[in-house]
Write a structure and sequence with these properties.
The chain is of the alpha/beta class. It is built from 6 helices and 6 strands; from the N terminus they run βαβαβαβαβαβα. It has helices spanning 15-26, 40-50, 66-76, 91-99, 111-123, 130-133, and strands at 6-11, 31-37, 54-57, 81-86, 104-107, 128-129. The chain has a 6-stranded parallel sheet, with helices on both faces. The termini are far apart.
């Protein structure tokens, strides 16, 4: 692993999808999955401990939903960028997620084709929304 690798925390409570996200990122040059989490409280703790560069975050999580997780991460690891990857596709859900300070949103059904593009957009500091930019 290169020292300049982008460190990513992957968060989803459905393990097969979590593994899918991690495997997609492992195929991306310069990206290193530093941790995988499956619930909101663990995510906040690991974000504070690891200070990852990027967090892929689902909304529907046990113990603490992704929206509240994002708000807490803003306090404990303000340098971490957040990209939501969620099945929620309503405009209200996307807007609420982005109001937390998240830099992007990819709908899970678009993840196979749009995840890497979304990650790159967030790392370039652009705001991305899969259903708006990549429909």
């Amino acid at each position: 692993m290169a020292t300049s690798a982008i460190r990513v925390l992957v968060v989803d409570d459905y393990e097969p999808f979590q593994q899918f996200l991690s495997s997609r990122l492992q195929d991306t040059s310069g990206v290193y999955v530093c941790w995988e989490a499956s619930d909101g409280l663990e995510t906040v703790q690991k974000a504070e401990e690891l200070r990852p560069d990027l967090i892929l975050l689902d909304i529907g999580l046990p113990q603490l939903n992704g929206i509240e997780v994002a708000r807490r991460i803003r306090r404990v690891s303000p340098g971490s960028r957040i990209l939501f990857v969620s099945q929620e596709s309503s405009a209200d859900a996307v807007q609420e997620a982005l109001r937390t300070g998240a830099r992007g949103y990819v709908v899970k059904t678009d993840a196979a084709s749009k995840l890497v593009e979304g990650v790159n957009a967030v790392l370039r500091r652009a705001v991305c929304r899969s259903e708006v930019l990549w429909s």
